[in-house]
Each structure stands twice: as C-alpha cells, then as structure tokens.
Amino acid sequence: MTVYPYLVAVFVFLVGAFGIVRSRNLIHAVVCLSVAQAGTYLLLVAVGFQWKAPPPVFGSPPTKPTLKVTDPLVQAMALTDVVVSGTVTALLLAIAVQVAKRQDMSDPNELAALRG
Prior knowledge:
The chain is 64% helix and 0% strand. It is mainly α.
C-alpha cells in the first residue's frame, strides 16, 4: 500500500483551505471550497482502493467471491460527496452573486452590513 494518494488528497485539501483563507473575493472563496472538497473525494477513493482487486459485482456466470474486492461503501460515499458539494457550491455561488448585486462589491472584508 502506498502513501501517495493520501499525500495528494491532503495537498489538494490544503491548497483549497489556503485559498479560502487568502481569498479577497466571494466567488474565489467558493471555488477554493470546491477545490478543498475535491481533496475529500481523493481521500475517499484512496481509502477504498485495493491493488488488483475485482469489482464487488458478481454477475453471470457466478464467480467465486473473494475477500479482496473494492469497497462499494466508499464509492457510494464519494458519489454522495460529489452531489452534496455540487449543491453547496451552487447555493454559495447564488448567494455570492446576490451579495455582489446588492452591495456592489464582492470583498468579504468590506461587507459591513452583514456583520451581526
């Protein structure tokens, strides 16, 4: 088992998190959040991957099940993560566009009207 997929997942997540912290634009922050979420996809795929393992589907003619198959739960979680992050990204982009329309700016530090 290699550690490279985990390192790539952490690197992509940290690049997205760094982009969120350094962002001076709401749209840029949403895109950086999407990049950080892509790191979670990579992590989920890396957790469920097994070298030379068959898929967990037993078709016709029936094959003898083995203990070494890819994990279908991790694949389902990655697919769910993709759907949820797409929905969150669309919602945040819509909010960012509305804020930019109403406040005539997209810098989060200049949005004094939104402070509580």
